[in-house]
Structure formats: structure tokens, C-alpha cells
Design goal:
The protein has 137 residues and is mainly alpha-helical. It has one domain (7-136): Nucleotidyltransferases  domain 2 (Four Helix Bundle (Hemerythrin (Met), subunit A)). Helices cover 79% and strands 0% of the residues. The chain is built from 5 helices and no strands. Helix 2 packs across helix 3 and helix 2 (33-60) runs parallel beside helix 5. Keywords: Transferase. Pfam families: NTase_sub_bind. This is Nucleotidyltransferase.
Length: 137
């Protein structure tokens, strides 16, 4: 299988745009019902792009990875993530489906807190690392 050396860099551009939207959404003081739905959706999209960008980078570096869990764990081994980022992204992976089906107020508020306080900042840190890595090459 031939790996496009620019694929991870191309996907990184999409991740940067998604992460910027997520950061902006996380900055709000309060949310109405539609804004909360948008926050969760923006997180889902950003999370998908995060692990897929890491996957493309790992494949470029010669790793054979497939599932999101394998990508996240291998990213730790390859030193693209630190232990806290790895655990945060694994937690986000586990809770991703729960977050997308958060219909009652308790679960929606739990999703908001996780995204604003944990997952969003982690995605920002990972994106910043990847941008720096791209610039250093």
C-alpha cells in the first residue's frame, strides 16, 4: 500500500478549522438547547478528525493502525501524545456514542462539562502539536 506523504497534512488543515470552531463553542458562558447540540456535534467532528489525522501521520511513519483505539495508543508509543492526552482521548472515544445520544438534560450537561473542560482542550493541544510538527518538517 502506497501512503500519500501529504495526506496527514491535508487532513490537518481540516482539523485546524474544526478545532477552531470547537474552541469558539467552548468559550461560551451559557448555551441554549440548539447551541448545546452544536457543541456536541462540533466535538464529534473534531474528535474524528483528530484521530484520523493521527492515523494518517502514523501510517506515513510506517505504522500499521486501523481502529481509533489502536491509533490513540500507538500515538502514545510514537510520542505524538502524552499519557494524559492518550487517556483523555480514550475516554472521549468510550463516551463519544453516549454524548451523541444525550437527550435528557442531565446527560447533555455532563457532555457539555466533559467537552468544555477536558475533551476540547485536549483536541486543541493535539492540534497545536500536529501544527508544530508540520512546521518543523
Amino acid at each position: 500500500m502506497s501512503v500519500n506523504p501529504d495526506r496527514w497534512k491535508q487532513r490537518l488543515q481540516n482539523l485546524q478549522r474544526a478545532q477552531a470552531r470547537l474552541s469558539k463553542a467552548c468559550e461560551q458562558e451559557s448555551y441554549n438547547e440548539l447551541e448545546l447540540a452544536g457543541l456536541i456535534q462540533t466535538f464529534e467532528f473534531s474528535f474524528e478528525l483528530s484521530w484520523k489525522t493521527l492515523k494518517d501521520l502514523l501510517e506515513f511513519e510506517g505504522y500499521d493502525v486501523a481502529s481509533p483505539r489502536h491509533v490513540i495508543r500507538t500515538s502514545l508509543e510514537a510520542r505524538h501524545l502524552n499519557a494524559v492526552q492518550c487517556e483523555t482521548l480514550l475516554d472521549a472515544l468510550i463516551k463519544r456514542n453516549l454524548l451523541s445520544h444525550a437527550y435528557d438534560e442531565k446527560h447533555v450537561l455532563e457532555a457539555q462539562a466533559l467537552i468544555v473542560n477536558s475533551y476540547g482542550p485536549c483536541i486543541t493541544n493535539v492540534t497545536n502539536y500536529l501544527v508544530k510538527k508540520n512546521l518543523d518538517e
